[in-house]
């Protein structure tokens, strides 16, 4: 069953759907490796569980969600990795999405989504397609995925029919100049916008600082780079989105998935809207007792840590205990 995790505190579409567990793309920087052995690829959620969610069935992590919130497909595993050619689990899910017209954002590094029956179904779905792509130098880190050039070609095929967003996630500062040269390539492929989020290390890399469990680049350095990247995106007619939580307000939208203007209902009762868009911070209409189980685990400490303290430095207001940043229940 699609589920929500701690991203609900900062994300407009935090409900994740994964048709596979594990991933043969085996990207060297993959954050999922911290938790799971991604080499052990198994079938994850299926068309049946997807249909159940669409019909309104919810688990303990999504009972607060009483509307057709867009699903983020491919949060922990690529739904179009090579095993899909044999299993075809994602193909069956596309059929459900096409039939129901339920909104979703799908993230992939594989060209399969732009081929044959997959493309024909995507054309008829209510969706945004995201390709993770930065520049050709990244191919060395993503040996199992389609190449950068293959993904750009796939994006150019799909963009004729659906909105396509490029995810430069993770962003490596040392490749900034190459990524800047990629932006016009994305524009030529018909891409709608690009989202940027920096790499997080488990070890001390050159130029990084310790921020709780990760080593990250200072927000001041990223802000400088992102200003350059935002300008080149805008100069090429692309939207700029910032997936970096410490700098989310730099983006053209607080929702970094590129879904604005599609009429999709989102979860705006989150910390980003609390800090940057008080007027747009709305709560779910679901007031039934017990429907806020997920939120009960989000203490003020979790909320502050989830936003990485950057906005304390910037002097923006932070939520305090008792203020009720989230109010999914009547309690």
Search tags:
single chain, 331 residues, alpha/beta, pyruvate-formate lyase- activating enzyme, 8-stranded mixed beta sheet, two-stranded antiparallel ribbon, 11 helices, globular
Architecture blueprint of SSEs:
Blueprint (H helix, E strand, L loop, with lengths): L2 E2 L10 E3 L2 E2 L20 E2 L3 H8 L16 E3 L10 H4 L1 H12 L3 E5 L7 H8 L3 E6 L15 H11 L4 E9 L4 H13 L4 E6 L10 E3 L2 E3 L2 H17 L3 E4 L28 H6 L16 H4 L3 H7 L3 H4 L18
Parallel strand pairs: 2-5, 5-6, 6-7, 7-8, 8-9, 9-12
Antiparallel strand pairs: 1-2, 3-4, 10-11
Helix pairs in contact: 1-3, 3-4, 6-7
Task: Note down, in words, how this protein is organized.
An 8-stranded mixed beta sheet has the order 1-2-5-6-7-8-9-12, covered by helices on one side. A two-stranded antiparallel ribbon has the order 3-4. The two termini are 26 Å apart. It has 331 residues and is an alpha/beta fold. It has a single domain (3-53, 63-267), classed as pyruvate-formate lyase- activating enzyme (Alpha-Beta Horseshoe). It is built from 11 helices and 12 strands. Residues 287-291 and 299-331 have low confidence and may be disordered. Helix 1 packs parallel to helix 3 (89-100), helix 3 runs parallel beside helix 4 and helix 6 (176-188) runs parallel beside helix 7.
